[in-house]
Amino acid sequence: MGLLDSFEKGLERAVNSAFAKTFRSGIQPVEIASALRSELDKKAAVVSRDRILAPNTFTVRLSPADDANMASLGNALNDELLTLVNKHATSQGYSFAGSVSITLTGDEQVSTGTLRVDSSTAQGGTVAWRGVVDVEGKRHPLVKARTVIGRGSDADITISDAGTSRKHVEILWDGERAMVRDLNSTNGTMLDGHKITEAALPPDSTVTIGRTAIVFRVVAHSAPPKPKLSADDATRAYNLRDGGPLA
């Protein structure tokens, strides 16, 4: 039995036992469940190697007749849908930015027997990403296009490591991609154990300067800042990410 079959049959059993009622025409509860499952799979986005973010807010648009039929089943249908959406997310390794909500509503633009599902992430906003770095137990959001890290007080992020230069390394982030650049430091910069001068910076990678580890991550949030790189740096970041030349 495939996952979808299991998902649908699970809801079908729940609905039949909870409501003991079906409709001869129009939308069936199991079709709503299948549509929600499909929306989860379609909109799931890879945030990092260890996290796949899925939408957590769903609006199911039904014809007025179908909406009236579903409303007659009461809150139990919504409870079953919530349970099965959470189970499907768990089975697929999806995570949510907040609690899951499902709203069924009538829409004159939807024909009887059909439905439309709209979804969103992070309390009603579309999913957006923020670059952050974890340094010495503290998380720093990358709110600027260039973030300089070093032991100097004039660095954007100051670290207490005598083995680093005053302005040791910079992280460039344009809201979608990142790169790391050594700033002619004395002791050099390592990326995941390899010495670099400049390189693309994938999520969950570790930059090491002196004895300090800097972990770059991309996290979900609802209102992203939009730092802007210069045209040259944006092109270089794109080329570095896709394996293009460094120069």
TrEMBL record:
Gene3D superfamilies: 2.60.200.20, FhaA, phosphopeptide-binding domain (DUF3662). Keywords: Phosphoprotein. It comes from the Bacteria. SMART domains: FHA (SM00240). Pfam families: FHA, FhaA_N. InterPro entries: Cell_Proc_Reg/RNA_Proc, FHA_dom, FhaA_N, FhaA_N_sf, SMAD_FHA_dom_sf. PROSITE patterns: FHA_DOMAIN. Residues 147-196 form the FHA domain. PANTHER family: NUCLEAR INHIBITOR OF PROTEIN PHOSPHATASE-1. This is DUF3662 and FHA domain-containing protein. It comes from Microbacterium marmarense.
